[in-house]
Amino acid sequence: MILGTIPTRLVGAGVAEREEARVRRGTNLPWVGDYNQAVVLDGVRRHPGTSRTDLALATGLTLQTVSNIVRRLLERGLVAEGEPLSRNGSRVGGKPRTALAVRSGAALAVGVQFEREHVDAVLLDLSGEVLAADREPLPDLPGSRERAVEVAVTHATGVVRRLIDTCGSPDAVLGVGVAVPGPLDFAGPVRSSAINLPGWRGVAIADMLAASTGLPVLVENDATAAAVGDLWRSRRVGRSFLYVHVGAGIGGGVVVRDEVLRGESGNAGEIGHVVVEPDGPACSCGAGGCLEAVAAPAAVVRRYAERVGVAAARRAGLRLAERSVLDDHDRLGVRAAAGDEAAGQELQTAARAIGRVVLGVVNVVDVSEVVLGGSGLRHAGERIRDAVRAALGVAMTREVHPVEVRFSDAGEQAGALGAASAVLHEALSSTWVGVHVPAREIVISPVAPVH
């Protein structure tokens, strides 16, 4: 896709040349007005303070077309006008250019992320600002896996309602985005069979949450959702990156030139189920030696306990319970930093395995960034980052372009934030119907048109 450039004088100085602010190109053909509106709104959203003239130059649309679109966006309350722009403190010659920005609170979305021990949720506005966030612990239900989903949905519904109550304008909420581990089935009602969530087999999570909240629901794989959030909140366009999510499991989200790769069924990016040890331990997916079975927090904790003995592991502070995996993994990170050789070696084994898989993905899809996120990085993040960087030292494209490895700035709620971002993106760039009066009964699918 051809890209335009908004002059950097209007969006802040000191930005590296390769991160120069850019927006998508539009078209002046008469039958694609909705697309052009999405292009203009995206330009304003990414670059608050830009003007109609600069948007026209960046998108390739005529100034009249941009002005007409901006007028409609102003009428809908999605965009607001600011003070006339000036250069070096003096007024611009001729008719002043007026700064544009998205209007705070005009369009909102809730993002929900299901984890084994809790539900995370965020309330996001069109500018990308997190207006509120919450975490709802889930009760331990030993021997009651069939109730786990029902209880999780009930708690998620409660946290969604609490967040909406804080916004003061519930009609501005366009929908709920849900991030869950894969696999997902998008044929018919969106169903989740999250292998890392007890009791989740063929769960019609979109229908369940739509019924309990009265809002449209979008369901996305958690790692892909995190990638969508990183993409949507970035000022840059044309990005190609791999998002690596390390939580209870390991997943990936792949973006190539701003396009999220979802594959035939919407389950692309399952890097946790790339086989790294053909004779390795059994994986929950049914295969053996998968990355997740070797390098996920549960695998690291298990190997440590096998290595030093269960009694010694408990003396080291590990609880060795299903719901304590992430806490135990954190404990190993702390012990490794304090000199526990066994803990350090097991964490390093996992980090190197992640690095090898990341290298393979980078060589296949040719990305220029690797973004790391998830609760499994709390005390192992630097070790994993360094292992990924070392592995990428032999990437096929190393002499063509560098591959940046960095941590996500969204924290542990990256999946929830990404799911909310996906709702806003679907609602405002696919169709403009229902921006002010959302169709509460619809269910949004990220791999199918809104229906």
Automatic annotation (TrEMBL):
Pfam families: MarR_2, ROK. PROSITE patterns: ROK. Gene3D superfamilies: 3.30.420.40, Winged helix-like DNA-binding domain superfamily/Winged helix DNA-binding domain (1.10.10.10). Residues 36-80 form the HTH marR-type domain. InterPro entries: ATPase_NBD, HTH_MarR-typ, ROK, ROK_cs, WH-like_DNA-bd_sf, WH_DNA-bd_sf. Keywords: Kinase, Transferase. It comes from the Bacteria. GO terms for molecular function: DNA-binding transcription factor activity; kinase activity. Belongs to the ROK (NagC/XylR) family. This is Putative NBD/HSP70 family sugar kinase. The lineage of its organism: Bacteria, Bacillati, Actinomycetota, Actinomycetes, Kineosporiales.
